[in-house]
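Hi U.,

Before I forget, here's the chain from the pilot set. I'm dumping it here mostly so it's searchable later in email.
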Amino acid sequence: MNIESAQGEISGESCLLQVRELTVMLNNGACAVDTVSFDLKRTECLALVGESGCGKTLSALSLLRAIPPEIGRAVARKISFEGRELNDLNKKELRQVRGGRISMIFQDPSTALNPLFSVGCQIVETIRAHQAIQAGEARRRAVGLLEEAGLADTSRILDSYPHQLSGGQRQRAMIALALSTEPALLIADEPTTALDVTVQRQIIDLLGGLLASRDLTLLLITHNLSVVAKLSDRVLIMYAGQIVENAAVTELFAGAAHPYTRALLGCLPHPKSGRREPVFIPGTVPEPGNWPDGCRFRPRCLFARSGCEGEQHLRPFKGNSRREVRCWLAEELFPPSGAEKG
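Structure:
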């Protein structure tokens, strides 16, 4: 069996999370995430990038054993967090990690926050579920968390129900809730998708500030490459359940190694190009169970040729162990620049 890394040179105490051969099987028998492996270093921001349907969210939910049983199940050879094997934890131990040491910011706070309880009630309850403190002290901490999340008039926010807040306020409240347990790892699933452009920038700046001030580790799930450029240290590009490229963010934007990554970057607007029409990738991401043989991007790839129907493995790009690509033509198609070598 080919064991793929997507881990660069992370090892030892600097590694917060290790994932090996993570697979998600849907109840209809289809494989949605296919033997994904990666490492996450402490205080690093790692972005999982790809179109909808590539397996990003399912991969993140698998870390917390949070995939609903009516959808499917996840199996992995290893999921190690802070030196503990999460697969071996019982339900009580897992609850201490899930929402405690690992917190998640969901894509749509209007559905993630409980509409039947005030924001303050939800934050206070979460704090007290993980820490033995009185309700008054928990409420004072909730006020501080909302202020840290950039919200004013915190007394009103605490006593408000989610529907009484704007989209930006709900997302900030969701961030405050996620931070309430002092997590080591924060998972942010499309944290700006449901917001307008101005508020998106504010949330990005807020997350960047929190990463610096709290020494947080962030697993960022997104299809927005502008967010990736602003926040991330390293990027994993996912397509059809597989990692197809692993690179430092500077390397990726200097010159992608996989045709899918190139296609994603090509969709970005370039004001100086004079291009008026939007650029898109033809076709759609194949559904789990309908993946083509060999390279799964092959039916949409402008560079596909005979040989692409063979099995593709994640491997070092031009001998660089810190950068990996799943394309047998990568070096021929996209020779790395001098800055990318070694």
